[in-house]
Design a protein that fits this description.
Elements: E1 4-19, E2 24-39, E3 43-47, H1 54-61, E4 69-74, E5 77-78, E6 86-89, H2 101-111, H3 116-129, H4 145-158, E7 163-167, H5 175-189, E8 196-200, H6 204-210, E9 213-217, E10 224-229, H7 245-265
Parallel strand pairs: 3-8, 3-9, 6-7, 7-8
Antiparallel strand pairs: 1-2, 1-4, 4-5, 9-10
Helix pairs in contact: 2-3, 2-4, 3-4, 6-7
């Protein structure tokens, strides 16, 4: 049986939201008893309607936000602050504009106290892995948004995390670059030492292409409504996986789920079959 690296156990989270009409603060439950496990070396994607709490869930798993109840267990320990062996790739890059590309990648290693002579070759290795050789000494404003996202990925990988959390990392990147980065990501996280990866996306095709399992999240409040195993061949970059009958079946199933959730969330009344 495959080893469990992360356990999300009945996590609940609410926020106070001010009502303009009532001129008071109401408690709004965002996450409602979320539970699932991440197996060692697995790639799991989360898909759900916008605003259902996916980013909040990632921040709770990383120890950046505390749940109201429930717990997250990582490598046998309860998470109450950001774990050393967990990497986070943010949607908004989070790069430091006053540092060069390579110094941004070195930043996590610097925080860990890694010797300067050791930091540079590690950072160089991961910059080359994401296709940024030759851009080491550029600054953030001198490179494209797609390249900035690759710097963020290289920075997260440089600390050699056991678990990689990714919050819509390719959302603002053009389609061609996005497909290239998807292939590069799979090569890295499924390499010699696989990385357990939790990936938030709104892109159904991206989730199916990358994942071993997809978690479908509902809303009001958010909960995991379905866990879908992805039974596609592992060498997905070697052929047109989107033409595979199983891929088409999965895509239709996920879109039907999302359409139903979005219709209900936006108050369009009873949802009927198409």
């Amino acid at each position: 049986m495959e080893e469990t690296v992360v356990t999300v156990d009945r996590v609940v989270k609410s926020y106070l939201a001010r009502s303009k009409k009532a001129r008071k603060e109401d408690k709004v439950q965002v996450l409602g008893s979320i539970s699932f496990e991440l197996r060692k070396g697995s790639f799991t994607s989360i898909i759900g309607p916008s605003g259902c709490g996916k980013t909040t869930l990632l921040k709770i798993i990383d120890g950046l936000v505390r749940p109201d109840s429930g717990r997250v267990v990582f490598n046998g320990k309860i998470v109450d602050s950001p774990p050393e062996k967990m990497g986070f790739v943010f949607q908004q890059f989070g790069l430091l504009p006053w540092r060069s590309v390579i110094k941004n990648v070195e930043f996590g290693l610097e925080l860990k106290g890694v010797d300067p002579d050791e930091r540079q070759p590690i950072a160089q290795k991961y910059l080359e892995a994401v296709g940024l050789k030759g851009f080491e000494h550029h600054y953030v404003h001198e490179i494209s948004s797609g390249m900035q996202q690759r710097v963020g990925l290289a920075r997260a990988l440089a600390i050699d995390p056991d678990v990689l959390l990714m919050d819509e990392p390719f959302a603002s990147i053009d389609m061609q670059t996005r497909e290239i980065l998807q292939r590069q990501l799979l090569q890295i996280v499924k390499g010699e030492i696989p990385k357990t990866t939790l990936f938030v996306t709104h892109n159904v095709d991206e989730a199916i292409y990358l994942s071993d399992e997809i978690l479908l999240m509902g809303t009001h409040p958010a909960e995991v409504k379905e866990k879908i195993p992805i039974n596609l061949p592992p060498n997905r970059a070697d052929y047109d996986v989107r033409a595979h009958p199983e891929y088409i079946r999965l895509r239709n199933r996920i879109w039907k789920f999302l359409e139903k959730e979005i219709m209900e969330k936006n108050g369009f009344g009873n949802y009927g079959s198409r």
